[in-house]
## 1
Amino acid sequence: MTDQAYNFAYLDEQTKRMIRRAILKGVAIPGYQVPFASREMPMPYGWGTGGVQVSAAVLTPDDTLKVIDQGADDTTNAVSIRSFFERTAGVATTTATRDATVIQTRHRIPEEPLTEGQILVYQVPIPEPLRFLEPRESETRKMHSLEEYGLMHVKLYEDISRHGHIATSYAYPVKVEGRYVMDPSPIPKFDNPKLSGTPAIQLFGAGREQRIYALPPYTQAVSLDFDDHPFTPSKADHPCGLCAATDSYLDEVITDDQGGRMFVCSDTDYCTARQAAGHKGKDAA
Amino acid sequence: MTPLLSVQGITKHYGTHIGCADVSFDLYPGEVMGIVGESGSGKSTLLNCMAGHLAPDAGRVMFDTRKPSGDDAAGHDTYGPRDTVTMSEPERRMLSRTDWAFVHQHARDGLRMGVSAGGNVGERLMAVGARHYASIRDQATDWLGRVEIDAGRIDDRPTTFSGGMQQRLQIARNLVTGPRLVFMDEPTGGLDVSVQARLLDLLRGLVRDMGLSAIIVTHDLAVVRLLADRIMVMKSGRVVESGLTDQVLDDPQHAYSQLLVSSVLQV
Ligand SMILES: Nc1ncnc2c1ncn2[C@@H]1O[C@H](COP(=O)(O)OP(=O)(O)OP(=O)(O)O)[C@@H](O)[C@H]1O
Ligand SMILES: [Mg+2]
Ligand SMILES: [Zn+2]
């Protein structure tokens, strides 16, 4: 099956070793952004080349890969990355979270709790959480090294002063093990609690920005907040229209051109599995 | 009495060119020192060396650091006069957001233009650990009032402020953590005369009420006349005369000081 024109998982062994070294350093210093020499991948940057390079470096022939984009296995982006690794690494693929050993994701953490031995690889567009207020890279690097994180709270302050509450709902910053402040990539803040204490390894790859960072298993990641405006992982206040789940992150879906709409799990594997187990929402056929 | 700041032999070259040379003086708590001199005489170079923005080639900048309060005091015996040139960068940066303040000539260099007035004032509080939104906001409101900015502007960005308001906002942002020493580089430069007068009045009031010590760089002798207890006259990177403000301005001894004073009087 493997296309022999490519090395296993596309990248040459030397490049993979270089990326693995960056990953190991990231795992050793949770939340710290490790620079790496990002390679050209046969896909545009917006398609998650950072995540793809990290996946390529950790995949082994025995792995089973799952790829999700906003929780779904069947978007163009997810399908093309999955087929890329089927072609270049010949690995087995799956849509079932529990069967996967490596999961590459864009913008979501699966609903089903991850387990020891699994690796979750995030595609990251902008790794630097301080970037929005401090564009100078030399300065943000210094801020991280000296733990000067007041600026993160300035952003949250601005949120509250403008909206009456912390309006940041994606890429919500976390402090890792009381040390580095980290951007968890544009996952909804609903997913933030799942970042912390998970038995899986979490790896973050930013291709264009050439950064890798990591949360080793069982690492604490605390969402930043104010004493009088505590972090809340908001979610829609209704169950999934298809599987009736009340604990999942929902997407709004337009069902017809008469303005009909319903709310369904963004994690398609989770929703499908629940429906197969007999759970039925109010919009289910 | 221990000087708050003791500057000893500060020298800074740019290549072979002299920025400032062998400058020494003591500043006592509550004192305001003015540094005057023509353009290029080394005023900003000296100020930036003292404030830790530039590394001097030689010399010491001894600052009388505070004893940490409460629980933090345990194990700390390094308070009292410390050389800020050789102290570690984290310590120096900590000083610059607690005990020190720096007011830039151009407000945009000292403000975050993309952040509201309240966020600008609150930043130093958050930088030293404030985590209660309502109390940060209360202090920001209080400080806007003290620099005569309407509380209703708290959520507006400084880009919508006049030059004078921006400068007053920069001052509020710097003073909110109760610093003991304020460095100012031409704080009234680039402002209209009437706006300058109001800012000077305000600065004078704040310095007096808070018992601030300050070092003010300016080439406007009217500014030092109003604010400074003592002045130093600089020329070609060196201090050519220093003394009580009124004495130096009314009876300058050095030929260059005489020229400086008379050229102002002629304007
Ligand atoms: N970054 C630099 N590189 C090289 N030379 C510099 C630099 N900054 C200042 N100088 C030189 O050092 C000398 C002192 O400059 P400085 O900026 O300290 O003067 P100043 O008294 O603040 O002047 P002004 O009133 O115009 O602000 C001048 O000759 C200046 O040209
Ligand atoms: Mg200058
Ligand atoms: Zn569902």
## 2
Amino acid sequence: MARLNIVDAINLALHQEMERDERVVVLGEDVGRNGGVFRVTVGLLEKFGENRVIDTPLAESGIVGTAIGMAVYGLRPVAELQFMGFLYPAFDQLISHAARIRTRSRGRFHCPLVVRMPYGGGIKAPEHHSESTEAILAHTPGLKVVIPSTPYDAKGLLISAIRDPDPVIFLEPKKVYRAIKEEVPEEEYTIPLGQAKILREGGHLSLFSWGAMVPPSLKAATLAQKEGIEVEVIDIRSIYPFDIDTIINSVQKTGRAIVVHEAARTCGFGAELVAQINEKAMLYLQAPVERITGFDTVFPLLKAEEYYLPNENQIIKEIKKVMTF
Amino acid sequence: MLSLLGKYDPLKGEMAQILDKDGRIVNPDLEPKLSNDDLKTLYRFMVLSRVADDKALKLQRQGRFGTYAPVRGQEAAEVGSAYALPRSDWMFPTFREMAAMVVKGMPLESVFLYWMGNELGNAAPEGVNIFPISIPVGTQPLHAVGAAWAAKIKGDDVATLVYFGDGGTSEGDFHEAMNFAGVFQAPTVFFCQNNQYAISIPRARQTAAKTLAQKAIAYGFAGVQVDGNDVLAVYAITKEAIAKAHAGGGPTFIEAYTYRLSHHTTSDDATRYRTKEEVAFWEERDPIKRFQVYLQGKGLWADDYEKGLLDEVTQLVDKATDKAENWPAPSPEDVFKYTYAEMPWTLKEQLAKLLETLG
Ligand SMILES: Cc1ncc(C[n+]2csc(CCOP(=O)(O)OP(=O)(O)O)c2C)c(N)n1
């Protein structure tokens, strides 16, 4: 086993899936010769050639739209969009077509497409390079949305996404692309979509997060423990479909919950979790379910970025508030 | 003066040029009638751009700048076109148009402030008609067409000029902009800086067409390819396209054929996808050197002039750097207060909470 970061783990998954299944093709801007602007696709062009690793013209609608045609025709395209902020030209294709092919053809066709992209803030990037709009995607019937937060999960979840019969949006938290290294098995393995992961058990409070908000959530849990508060930290991982059993079991055990996400607050995915908890565990609750989120504002440029992103200090403060409700 | 717009056929790959790579006049009848002061001003802006660019790269390496997209190699395309744009006309820049913006009246310290990560740097001063920099590639041509169309509807004598790269011509929005401009005869100049690459992707991967300029033909208006490293040709062509727009002649597409001598941005490593030989070929076509030779021939350039100029612009760049660096950091309120004309309760609540957290 090798110690890999998220970039390397995804790269390994792509290599192995392309090796295993010749229907898998990778396409996007700068994915070939340049190996991707974050180097996620390095080495693929050299190994699999220009027919399967495709540097496209600069056109997101073109990339996703043609990938839909490829997917329905029988390939397994893995499209890369350079940043989540440049996903929007492809919205019509994703929402009106990728998500609906199965429905509109009454099951005659389906769209086994993966669209990968780096997302989220925290790297002091220019405008449009920091947003997280996973909720819009999760709100679209027919799309699956996956967000790994560790190298191990990144590999297993991507392999599942590629083998999935439906379109999967695979969001890569770029703040932690290279921040975490862990043992990642060389052999192929899958992590089923739709399963959350309990990262740390605790009986007093459930803390739900995903992507780059997982590390500060874990740090806050460690700090809380020093004060005698046992926090259960759960990485949602799969935003849609999401793991309702793990979520509700945890809340039934702890009676208190907080959701942490960096996306804007209003209609963020946290709102859905709060609603689900209310519907399914209301009578177990000892305090209102709280959210720690980004703001309903444009993501600020780097000089003001620190104001926007939730951090462990905010989380620990909120934990104490919920505990003393 | 001869009309340049109809003279060069983009389908045949014909390109307008006045100064060749060695600074010799190859088309004397096309030479724009510019005063010596104008010529020296063009040169000064190009040198200023080069010095500001180098400073930006240095500051970025020292962690004092965010990601930056250098202009190097494209000074003639930017300065020549922006200089042809009257003050009342509107400019729609991308992230690479530092030089064009400065020519149009954007204070250099604002451009620096923006790349240092303070959004205030995106706000053009009153009377400077520059839209905020567009980072989503290919999106802003539609705005330029809309603004030009609005000017036409309102009866204003205003044209617009929009910058974008070769990569930008692949986006759907670009084609919709060209089509609307043609249909509604919008007074817009589409100024494409074909610097041969969109990050690592060469121009040939953006279109199977021989030139980008020929795309205009399908939309029903003139397209012309110009040597983008020849500031005189760029100026002359843009001037004519702008005059045509003001005279009710509708849109024009200009393809400035140039080269990005530096990396795509400070996050990029151009050695991964292009050869030293290729870069050297274009170094020989440096737009500044070529224009310098031309000025020297006219008795407008000498070593001591260059030295004085370098001193002057270096001081200007240093001052802009100081000003931008000493700008007060954005406040928490700054993140919220421009989202809407009036803050909804959601934002007020979130801001109050942030202020409470910060103590
Ligand atoms: C819609 C969109 N997709 C992708 C990107 C990422 N990106 C930034 S610049 C760039 C290349 C742009 O090339 P070109 O239009 O030729 O302009 P240049 O950078 O060469 O000036 C890319 C792909 C973006 N900013 N916007």
